[in-house]
Each structure stands twice: as C-alpha cells, then as structure tokens.
Amino acid sequence: MVNDPLLQVKGVGIQFGGLKAVSNFNLKINQGELIGLIGPNGAGKTTSFNLLTGVYAPTEGEILFDGKRINGLPPFKVTQRGISRTFQNIRLFNELSVIDNVKVAYHSLAKHSVLSSILRLPSHFSGEKEMEKKAMEFLKIFELDKYKDEDAKNLPYGKQRRLEIARALAAAPRLLLLDEPAAGMNPQETKDLMELIAFVRKEFNLSILLIEHDMNLVMGICERIYVLDHGVLLAEGTPEEIRNNPKVIEAYLGEEVHDEHA
Ligand SMILES: Nc1ncnc2c1ncn2[C@@H]1O[C@H](COP(=O)(O)OP(=O)(O)OP(=O)(O)O)[C@@H](O)[C@H]1O
C-alpha cells in the first residue's frame, strides 16, 4: 500500500547472555522522513542499527521493510532490499582509493556480470565506465572528487566520514542509517554535513534514520525523534515534544536542555 510506512519495527529485541540490549522496540519511518534516534551511552542505538541491517537477528519481534519481513536476512540482502548504513567507527577500505571505495558499493548494482569482467567482454568496459561516472557523481556531491585517486586512509577525518556516506548512497538505498555521522567533526564541518544530509535526502528521495549525540543538531533537522534508554523506548515525538518530555529530561537531556529553554 502506498501509505504504508517504509520501515516498521514491531516489538523487536535482542538478548546477549543475560543482557537485554534492546527490548520491545517499536519504530516507524515513512517515505521521505528524517528521524532521529537518541539515548545515553549503552542505550542500544547501535544495536538497533545492527538489528535493522541483519548483523544481528532479533530474538523477538519483526522488522518489515516496504511491507516485507527482513529480519533474519543477512546484511548483504538487507542492503539489496534498500537499506544502507554508515558506522560509528568509520569502516572504509583504507588501502583503496577514494573512488574505488565508492565503486565497491556500486558494484553489486552494476549491470555487467562477473563472467563478463573475467572474460573482459565489451560489456565489462562499458559497465566499468558507467560505474566510474556514477562514482564521480557521488564524489562531486560530497566535494571529494579532487581526492579521487588518494588512498582513503590519507583523507582527513571529516572527509572520511563524508566518503562513508557517499559509499552508502552508492548502493542506491531507500533508507539510509547514519550512526553518529558528525562524531569528531568541528562545528563548521558538522553544519556543512547537516546541510548535505538534507540535500541528499531530497535529491535521492531518501528516508533517513540518524543516531546523533549533538542535541541541537538532532532537534534542528529531524521531524520526529525516538529516545532509547537501557534498551527500551522511553519516548517518541516531535523535537518539541521530546524537549519537554520530563522522562527524557531526567534520563538524558538533563539540565542542559532545561536551561536552554528556561
Ligand atoms: N555483541 C554484543 N555482545 C554483548 N553485549 C553487547 C553486544 N553489542 C552490544 N552489547 C551491549 O548492549 C548494550 C547496548 O550497546 P549499544 O552499542 O547498542 O549502545 P549505544 O546506544 O549505541 O551506545 P553508544 O552511544 O555508547 O554508542 C551495551 O550494554 C553493550 O555493551
């Protein structure tokens, strides 16, 4: 159905030994929404991403993407269905060039087959050319085109973060999961990145789920916010509702937000 949410997480949870890292987690993302996921350290945010992307299979509940069940699928299948992510600790292919990092992600979608690549058929070369062109388009959007032949490891930290997002986008997702994309960036880099996220969301008609510690940033760009605490959903609402939710203030935001709006 056209109006069904793109992503529906229904009562999802996972237990590691005796620890319930996430339990009874419910979340909905509609087409085109930019949603924030916040919570104190150890609240279960990254574990939720791992559940959504098939790194972990939930021990309870189900996850529907585009109306179809995806829990239990391995990560590469989840990516093929249309969910891409970035990682809290950057995971690039350090020894590969900047452009090759993007091409790797694009590869699974390219039309030419492995066989045509091995045999070096004409379709291999046209496929390669098209891939190069597409990868350059992503690099341009992220202002990384002039570093295309540089090893990824030589990029400054902020640019590595941008490259990770470019690579995630190259897999042509409908839902992009960003795990603290602005971590370690200075205020100007963070501001630029947020503008870029807003731009790519429109340009690629994306839905985005964003884990972020910078409260002003989350409040500034997300339509709705989910708050996790000790693995359970503490609150869900608009930035205004979250800001004024006493449970959230007590558990997470504390005096900082209180003072801001006093
Ligand atoms: N593979 C695992 N095995 C055992 N425990 C785990 C595993 N992964 C996560 N946990 C635990 O689950 C809880 C939630 O961790 P998670 O990394 O999801 O929190 P987070 O909200 O992302 O925190 P942070 O903001 O610090 O990144 C923590 O107590 C963590 O130690």
UniProtKB/TrEMBL annotation:
The keyword GTP-binding does not apply. Keywords: ATP-binding, Nucleotide-binding, Transport. The keyword ATP-binding applies. Pfam families: ABC_tran, BCA_ABC_TP_C. GO terms for biological process: D-alanine transmembrane transport; L-alanine transport; L-isoleucine import across plasma membrane; L-valine import across plasma membrane. One of its GO terms (molecular function) is L-valine transmembrane transporter activity. InterPro entries: AAA+_ATPase, ABC_AA/LPS_Transport, ABC_transporter-like_ATP-bd, BCA_ABC_TP_C, P-loop_NTPase. Residues 7-255 form the ABC transporter domain. PROSITE patterns: ABC_TRANSPORTER_2 (PS50893). One of its GO terms (cellular component) is plasma membrane. This is Branched-chain amino acid transport system ATP-binding protein.
